[in-house]
């Protein structure tokens, strides 16, 4: 008896992974690849699209050769803000430009000023002005700077949908990719922003389908279904949306700590936008208010600074348990600033040792995190906050978060490969005969 499985490609900036999940969502096969980056015509680093395409087919051939698995469906999740420009025959016309590529200021200003200025434009599209990270502007740039290439574009698709197209031969757009700071979508009208229509760019965008759509495979004789692909941040939210129905916030922690509130659809305010708030979109096309904090990066910088000052290795910080005496000593009667870079100005000589200094840093970090998360709390009563990723394992961080949000339950959530599992869950009914398991997410409660 072959094991029925779903195959999920999880394509990150650094690691490209393929997982096979069985019907209980256990990983039964895993393959990881890393490719050398290549460069675009300006010499800027970019993803090697050809390596990626070959890797998808190589990995699929490999798992189809394994006799023990019966692949019922395939889905994809990847980072957003990256367009692939396809010609009539489905071949990419350009490199996959990096979303960190510098964007011409004059071009950005021309677009913004034609549509009411940067503030009105950003508010309508729920996209802080981020240059190439607003993937709609990448398409606008191609149209303006390379009209001959633009003419040949049949469809511009985001990376997850390109990966899906490789296997299904179907070209579609999905809401999770359109909804992530692309500057394409008008959230108040729930349609493409009128600049997309007026510039004619809308004609280059594939028809929109919901994130739980599946297609038949392009290869004759194959019976498996192919998902449309998802933007990774939206995919990681899916296991929570399917398991918890009371209003919650998910703080997804890594280099960036992103607070996601799927229960807040109030329009963005000017102040929220200035503080790096934006909307993402769920697979069903509903808005998710989000705020971002560069906290993981700051943690790296400050732990190095503390380690050097006290002449210890950064490994020492991994397992420091919270000491409430130190917390009380450092925070009683003190006003802690909420800007993320505040601790960088603090003189480390004022602390007795590295343990005290690290406690102090996390007090500052949590103050910034709480301020960031509060931006998206909204009026609806949030019952729980889930924290996943690196900081969920940090005893000081989690305890201080629980103390600060005294009336909201705080949980450290752990789930192996949340992003990949989200992409499998969203098409659950298409490949899995079992009910959705209720124990996918492990929770640890932190008492206020």
Automatic annotation (TrEMBL):
A Pfam family found in this protein is FGGY_N
For this chain, one GO molecular function annotation is: D-xylulokinase activity
A GO biological process of this protein is: xylulose metabolic process
Report keywords, A-Z. Kinase, Transferase
Lineage: superkingdom: Bacteria
Spell out the InterPro entries in the cross-references: ATPase_NBD (IPR043129), FGGY_C_2 (IPR049382), FGGY_N (IPR018484)
UniProt similarity note = Belongs to the FGGY kinase family.
Task: List, alphabetically, the PANTHER family matched.
Answer: SUGAR KINASE, XYLULOSE KINASE
Q: What is this protein called?
A: Carbohydrate kinase
Protein source organism: Sphingobacterium gobiense
């Amino acid at each position: 008896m072959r094991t029925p499985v779903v195959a999920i490609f999880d394509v990150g900036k650094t690691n490209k992974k393929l997982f096979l999940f069985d019907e209980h969502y256990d990983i039964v096969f895993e393959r990881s690849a890393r490719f050398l980056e290549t460069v675009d015509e300006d010499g800027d680093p970019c993803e090697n699209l050809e390596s990626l395409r070959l890797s998808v087919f190589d990995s699929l051939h490999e798992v189809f050769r394994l006799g023990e698995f019966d692949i019922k469906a395939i889905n994809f999740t990847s980072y957003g803000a990256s367009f692939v420009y396809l010609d009539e025959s489905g071949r990419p016309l350009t490199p996959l430009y990096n979303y960190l590529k510098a964007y011409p200021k004059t071009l950005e200003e021309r677009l913004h000023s034609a549509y009411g200025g940067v503030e009105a434009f950003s508010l309508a599209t729920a996209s802080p002005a981020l240059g190439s990270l607003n993937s709609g502007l990448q398409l606008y740039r191609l149209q303006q700077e390379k009209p001959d290439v633009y003419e040949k574009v049949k469809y511009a698709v985001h990376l997850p949908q390109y990966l899906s197209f490789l296997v299904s031969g179907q070209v579609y757009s999905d809401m999770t990719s359109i909804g992530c700071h692309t500057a394409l979508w008008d959230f108040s009208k729930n349609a493409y922003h009128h600049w997309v229509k007026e510039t004619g760019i809308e004609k280059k965008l594939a028809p929109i389908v919901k994130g739980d759509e599946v297609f038949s495979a392009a290869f004759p004789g194959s019976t498996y279904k192919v998902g449309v692909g998802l933007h990774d941040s939206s995919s990681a939210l899916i296991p929570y949306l399917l398991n918890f129905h009371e209003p919650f916030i998910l703080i997804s922690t890594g280099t960036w700590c992103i607070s996601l509130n799927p229960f807040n659809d109030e329009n963005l305010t000017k102040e929220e936008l200035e503080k790096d708030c934006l909307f993402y979109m769920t697979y069903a096309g509903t808005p998710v208010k989000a705020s971002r904090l560069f906290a993981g990066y700051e943690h790296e910088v400050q732990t190095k600074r503390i380690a050097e000052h006290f002449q210890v290795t950064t490994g020492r910080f991994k397992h420091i348990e919270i000491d409430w005496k130190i917390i009380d000593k450092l925070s009683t009667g003190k006003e802690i600033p909420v800007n993320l870079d505040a601790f960088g100005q603090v003189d480390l000589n004022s602390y007795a040792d590295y343990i005290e200094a690290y406690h102090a840093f996390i007090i500052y970090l949590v103050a910034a995190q709480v301020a960031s998360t509060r931006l998206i709390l909204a009026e609806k009563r949030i019952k729980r906050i889930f924290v996943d990723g690196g900081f969920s394992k940090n005893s000081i961080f989690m305890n201080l978060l629980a103390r600060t949000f005294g009336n909201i339950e705080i949980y450290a959530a752990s789930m192996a490969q949340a992003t990949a599992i989200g992409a499998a869950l969203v098409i659950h009914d298409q490949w899995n005969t079992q009910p959705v398991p209720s124990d996918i997410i492990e929770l640890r409660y932190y008492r206020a």
